Structures are given as C-alpha cells and as structure tokens.
C-alpha cells in the first residue's frame, strides 16, 4: 500500500487543527494574564505614590481620608480650587491637589478605576480584598486602588457594583 487514505489525511488535519486552537487559547490566556499583571502593577504604583504624599503632608490626614473616586460614576474628576502651579499653596490645598492627581491617574491608567483612602482594620473578607472600610480611629490608613475587569467576551467580570480592589497599600508612619 502506497500513499495515504483520505481518512488518514482528515485525521491528521483534525489533530493539527486541535493543536492550533489549543495554542491560540493558551496565547490569549497569557495575554490576559499579562494585562492583569500590568494593571496590578499600575495600581500598586499609584497607591504607593499616594502613600508617600500622605506621609509628606500627614497634618492633612482628615482631608485625605475623605478621598473616594469611581471613574464609572465620575468619568472626569473635578478639579480642585488651586492647582499650585503659579502660586504657593497651603497644606490643605496641596492635599486636595494630591487627591485630584490620584483620581486623574486612576482614570487614565485603569479601566473604570476606583480609589479610596480610609482607615481599615479588616482589608480582607472571604479571601478577597474589600472596598468597605471599618473606619476605626486606631485602624491603619490604607489606600485601595482597583478597576473593573472584563471577561474575554467583553462583559464585566464578577461583581460590577462592588469589584474587589486590585491593590491595598497601608500608609506606614502616619499616627492614628
């Protein structure tokens, strides 16, 4: 017998097609994981930068603790009264500018990003980071930054109304 039968050729093409589909699915999964990793890195960088600003201006901690932002609800963050570019600012104005800058960076760097600064003694619940804050006066100051992810088909991933934060950074060196 010489040559291949049509059945053998069809089986070989089927095996090749399954292999290509598997390889493509693996590549798509790797791209999603890389994207999520980049978002997590960005969220961590934004939270760490804000922690440094809070430490540098710790007398204005009550102003910082009022900061909440949700790009889904507020697509364009409102500008503070003073941008501190042409004239000197007091500590309160500088805190407002810091919050505005955080909101602006979250809006531009994260898809439907969120940020919150609060006192929270229980950042984890049921194995997930949580947005709620305990608000206890002695609790550590934390910065929570996150985003709303999407499934491969483009639909929102998980709980759209209350997704888990991507990163939570505790602000060390700030007195309760």
Produce a short descriptive summary.
This protein is α+β, with helices and mostly antiparallel strands. It has three helices and six strands.
Q: Can you walk through the features of this model?
A:
This protein has 176 residues and is α+β, with helices and mostly antiparallel strands. It is built from three helices and six strands. The chain has helices at 6-56, 61-65, 91-109, and strands at 68-70, 114-119, 124-125, 128-129, 141-146, 167-170. A hairpin with a 2-residue loop joins strand 3 (124-125) and strand 4. Helix 1 (6-56) packs antiparallel against helix 3. The model has no long low-confidence stretch (mean pLDDT 86).
Task: Kindly list the characteristics that best describe this protein.
single chain; 176 residues; alpha+beta; 4-stranded antiparallel sheet; two-stranded antiparallel ribbon; 3 helices; 6 strands; elongated
Q: What's the structural blueprint in terms of helices and strands?
A:
Elements: H1 6-56, H2 61-65, E1 68-70, H3 91-109, E2 114-119, E3 124-125, E4 128-129, E5 141-146, E6 167-170
Helix pairs in contact: 1-3
Strand order of the largest sheet: 1-2-5-6
Helical residue percent band: 40-55%
Give Rg in angstroms.
24 Å
The beta-strand count equals 6
Order of helices and strands: HHEHEEEEE
Tell me the number of helical segments per DSSP (H or I, 4 or more residues long).
3
Q: Sheet with the most strands?
A: 4 strands, antiparallel
**Spans of at least 5 consecutive residues with low confidence:** none
Instruction: State the separation between the terminal residues, measured CA to CA.
Output: 86 Å
What is the strand content? Answer: 5-15%
């Amino acid at each position: 017998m010489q040559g291949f039968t049509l059945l053998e050729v069809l089986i070989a093409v089927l095996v090749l097609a399954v292999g290509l589909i598997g390889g493509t699915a693996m590549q798509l999964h790797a791209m999603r994981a890389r994207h999520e990793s980049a978002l997590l890195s960005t969220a961590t960088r934004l939270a760490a930068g804000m922690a440094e600003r809070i430490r540098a201006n710790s007398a204005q901690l009550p102003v910082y603790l009022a900061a909440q932002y949700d790009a889904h609800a507020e697509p364009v963050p409102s500008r503070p009264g003073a941008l501190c570019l042409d004239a000197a600012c007091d500590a309160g104005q500088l805190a407002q500018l810091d919050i505005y800058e955080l909101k602006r960076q979250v809006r531009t760097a994260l898809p439907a990003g969120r940020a919150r600064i609060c006192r929270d003694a229980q950042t984890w619940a049921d194995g997930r980071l949580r947005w709620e804050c305990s608000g206890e006066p002695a609790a550590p100051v934390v910065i929570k930054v996150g985003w709303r992810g999407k499934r491969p088909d483009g639909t929102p991933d998980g709980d759209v109304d209350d997704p888990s934060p991507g990163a939570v950074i505790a602000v060390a060196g700030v007195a309760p």
